[in-house]
Amino acid sequence: MLRRRFEAEGEWRVVWGDDDESRVADALASLASRGLFGGSTVLVRRAEAMRAGVEALVEATVAEDRYEGRLVLAGGTLDRRRRWYATARPRATELVCLPVTDPRELRGWVERLAAERGVRLRDDAIAELLARCGPELALLDGELEKLAAADLPQPVERDAVVRLVAGVRSHAIEELTDRLARGDRAGALRVLRHLLAGEEPPLRIIGFLAANVRRALHVAEELERGGSPDAIAARLGMPEWLVRRQLGRGPATRLERALEVLGELDLACKSSRPEAAMFEAALDALAASAR
């Protein structure tokens, strides 16, 4: 969101907290002068991993208060006892992005994100959107963008959400993937039956499940080569939070076998054999492999 709002107003530069000190210094120096098209924005990722020299550079930049651009620091759990934090905090806006679990808060987010795009939704449309997307704000934001682009009559009704928002409940597919990785056959079967009862096309479920497993396989391969989550994210062009979500889903060899099972299931579901029985047999094989 910050990139979308600031990138049009000047240069956007990204450095990392554990980068070489000279590289960070060069980026921060660009904040002191206004460019032809506006002040630049410097994003420091992995702010929690800043070395002492980089912390001192950030502290000095903020303390001087002479820059024309914007400084954004993004990271995991920050140590609020550090000197740079004490210097920056009175001059900064701090956004703490935790998972949203309260249904009322989720509804508020939907209304807010929709309003930013000039969209109003009926109560039943909001309920349907949440049922299909779950608590993933990024997913909700993307689907609201799709509704806005459709130029629908306001307020948007539930039928429009049913028609335009992805049919597969992504959070249920994530849960199914996680349960299979843990060898939880009973839990995976419950999630699968819920999806099938909601009339999700079996082939679409297989496609989304295979995409999740393939993503986990790519991460597992990089992890086995010794890559760290942030390095894997950069190499695969994947957000770090998404990389971390794949951790613990099994070694690469097991994930390769899981893809083979899903390929066989895809062929079976395109034949005349009973889909539910084929699904349950595939889940048995995947869960047993994980155990």
Structure description:
The chain is mainly α. The protein has 15 helices and 3 strands. The chain has a 3-stranded parallel sheet with strand order 1-2-3, with helices on one face. The mean pLDDT is 81.
State the helical fraction.
55-70%
- Strand and helix order: HEHEHEHHHHHHHHHHHH
How many strands, what sense, and barrel or not for the largest sheet?
3 strands, parallel
| CA-based shape | globular
Uncertain runs with pLDDT below 50, 5 residues or more?
Answer: none
Structural class: mainly alpha
Which tags fit this structure?
60% helix, three-stranded parallel β-sheet, single chain
In short:
The protein is mostly helical and 291 residues long.
Set out the fold topology.
Blueprint lengths: L1 H5 L5 E5 L4 H9 L11 E5 L6 H13 L5 E4 L9 H6 L14 H14 L6 H11 L3 H13 L8 H7 L5 H12 L3 H13 L4 H23 L4 H8 L3 H7 L5 H18 L5 H16 L1
Helix pairs in contact: 2-3, 5-7, 6-8, 9-10, 9-11, 10-15, 11-14, 12-13, 14-15
